[in-house]
Amino acid sequence: MPWPSVRVMTRTASRTRPGYRCSECGWETAKWVGRCGECQAWGSVAEAAAVPTGRTTAGPVTTAAVPIGTVPVEDSRARTSGIPELDRVLGGGVVPGAAVLLAGEPGVGKSTLLLEVASRTAAAGRRVLYVTGEESTSQVRMRADRTGAVQDELYLAAETDLGALLGHVQAVRPELLVVDSVQTIGAADVDGVPGGVTQVKEVAAALVRVAKTQGIATVMVGHVTKDGSIAGPRVLEHLVDVVLHFEGERSSRLRMVRAVKNRFGPVDEVGCFDLSGTGIVAVTDPSGLFVSRHHEPVPGTCVSVVLEGRRPILAEVQALVTASAAERPRRTTSGLDGSRVAMLVAVLEARARLRLITHDVFASTVGGVKITEPAADLAGAVAIASAYKQRDVPTDLVAIGEIGLAGELRRVRDTPQRLAEAARLGFAGAIVPAESLADAGKVRRVHGMKVVGVPDVDSALRLLNLAAHDCDPVFRARRTDPTRPTLGVVRRHDL
Q1: What value does the mean pLDDT take over residues 234-257?
Q2: What is the mean pLDDT of residues 208-229?
Q3: Helix or strand or coil: residue 483?
Q4: Total number of domains in the chain
Q5: Is 458 helix (H, G, I), strand (E, B) or coil?
Q6: 190 and 316 co-located in one domain
């Protein structure tokens, strides 16, 4: 007897899968692990709410797709923030509907800078809403009185709830919204405390959504962790259009804004500011801040030209070399890469025969600037050799070039722009790699600057009378080698 036919009914149902999420960065995984695979934090992965899985069907569209040539661009033109240095970093100004994240260490001056931007924008006739979650309105008003930032079109509110913040936006309808800070705002219908991964993601997504739909330029302040990275999930940096880092030493008034991400402009620009008790002021010509003018030549100093973004800045490197009583000589740096300075000392020891193995070497920069570009290698080597030999370097001389392990000088980019900046500030001579001598021809013709090209660091030191003693037999053999390239008749007084 055959079995009766049974009709099997199938139904597609959404399933749920357990998930685990890191409380530090928001990294998700299907199973529990003791260490986060993204931020490498221990014990931060915990079970999250079940995530439904299933197929998504097509739904109604919000706006119809149109040819790209018919999309208007007039409403997305950048508008000046009132601060030229910030406009330089942003790529011309603040774009309506853009979401900007400004991060920095506590006390570096983020709130002061944004209050100045809000004041300048309000003074231009555009309405601004400044929402603070860290201070009271009276505290912000006191700072505004001190910096002269009180304007009629600048509206101020102290809120920590996302719903109330959006209500202020609907009531004021600003052209610029400043939120200080995104970690202090919480959403009532989302689990977690303000500043947590889930809360930060929801608050940032809501603010970006409002910025895009209503065309409001939004600037959010972000906290940083102890290692300098932006606190919260990494998706926060992906949600916004521009990510800016505001940095500076507490012992210095100099502050710098760098663009880490920018959908509307370059990411290699930097803006300089001077933070004081009366507010923050843009520094349009920061070269003089990093060079100390000496009345008389001092051994152990040399000036180089480094690039901060696309801006050439003169920076002075200072060195001090003293006899060491310890078994291992010290190599101490400030503002310079310690491993880079150690490499320069090794190159001077091996290629220029300077006996630095028994001496302590201290190297630093002037004005608190941090130099990471290899173009300052030659200036560092000249400063160390000058301090070791106790012979001064001409005060109107700049040294530009990267030093390799073989002692050779390598060319660096934008040499004409560097030399033109040095000539503008009154420097009359320059030592550059021999490969860059052709690029410097226009600078010599226009500014009358004496530019000398050298092939290696030993030749640069001999040009400045800083080479090893002639009694060294190895050094004497190298100088008398007929196959070794020479500088011709160029001497120090030619500079």
Answers
A1: 86
A2: 90
A3: coil
A4: 3
A5: helix
A6: no
Q: Specify burial of residue 74 (Cβ count, 10 A radius: 0-12, 13-18, 19+).
A: exposed
pTM, whole model, 2 decimals? 0.75
| Domain membership flag for residue 172 | yes
What distance in Å separates the CA atoms of residue 461 and residue 403, rounded to the nearest whole number? Answer: 13
Residue whose C-alpha is closest to residue 431's, from 482, 391, 465, 405 = 465
Q: Output the domain CATH number for residue 97.
A: 3.40.50.300
In a shared domain, residues 321 and 463: yes
Look at residues 136, 134, 181, 183 and name the one whose alpha carbon lies nearest to residue 156. Answer: 136
149: its two tokens: 């930032």
Average pLDDT over residues 379-391: 95
Q: What is the pLDDT of residues 129-138, one digit of tens each?
A: 999 999 999 9
Q: Answer for the pair 321, 406: CB distance below 8 angstroms, yes or no.
A: no
Residues 407-413: what's their mean pLDDT? 93
Q: What's the token pair of residue 436?
A: 């860059």
Average pLDDT along the chain: 85
| Residues 278 and 310 placed together within one structural domain of the fold | no
What is the per-residue pLDDT across 346-378, written as a single tens digit (0 to 9) for each? 999 999 999 999 999 999 998 878 898 999 999
Q: Lowest mean pLDDT: which of 80-94, 240-254, 361-375?
A: 240-254
**Domain range for residue 390?**
289-472+486-494
Q: Are residues 279 and 351 in the same domain?
A: no
CB of 88 closer than 8 Å to CB of 262: no
> Count of CB atoms within 10 A of residue 15's CB?
10
